């Protein structure tokens, strides 16, 4: 698998006054896709709750390259771009690509795993998280940090 892909469907409420997808909607689509991917990799909400850990973000950034309109057909491709060997820290990239294979936007998030009882970074990283994130498709320029 080269990436996790999802075709997006835009709603009227995803638009801004300029009739293109509003900036915050991109972040919503990225967040939803990450949760769907974690679920797909076995890190369901039930597992995260029962093992008292979950993902936490330190940075979330979007670079907008081409506007997206309500009727545009967009596929979001999600890959991991950086990761520590113990999977304790990672960066995920979401690319929004249109029908013409043009890159419309890129979201990059930097994150880690949080112990939800201690409210601190999980140490050590839960084994189930290590197994899941190692199965994440990687970018061509993937970097072990």
Automatic annotation (TrEMBL):
Tell me the keywords, alphabetical order: Hydrolase
Asked whether the keyword Hydrolase is assigned, the reply is yes
Q: Which InterPro entries match?
A: 4-hydroxybenzoyl-CoA_TE, HotDog_dom_sf
Q: Which Pfam families match?
A: 4HBT_2 (PF13279)
SUPFAM superfamilies recorded for this chain? Thioesterase/thiol ester dehydrase-isomerase
Any one GO MF term held by the record is: fatty acyl-CoA hydrolase activity
Q: What is this protein called?
A: Acyl-CoA thioester hydrolase
């Amino acid at each position: 698998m080269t990436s996790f892909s999802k075709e997006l469907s835009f709603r009227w409420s995803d638009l801004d006054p300029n009739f293109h997808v509003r900036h915050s909607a991109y972040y919503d689509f990225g967040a939803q896709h990450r949760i769907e991917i974690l679920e797909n990799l076995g890190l369901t909400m039930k597992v995260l709750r029962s093992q008292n850990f979950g993902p936490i973000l330190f940075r979330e950034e979007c670079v907008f390259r081409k506007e997206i309109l309500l009727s545009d057909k967009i596929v979001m491709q999600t890959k991991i771009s950086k990761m520590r060997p113990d999977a304790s820290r990672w960066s995920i990239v979401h690319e929004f690509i249109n029908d013409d294979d043009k890159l419309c936007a890129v979201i990059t998030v930097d994150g880690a795993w949080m112990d939800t009882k201690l409210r601190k970074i999980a140490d050590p990283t839960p084994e189930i998280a290590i197994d899941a994130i190692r199965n994440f498709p990687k970018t061509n320029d993937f970097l072990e940090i």
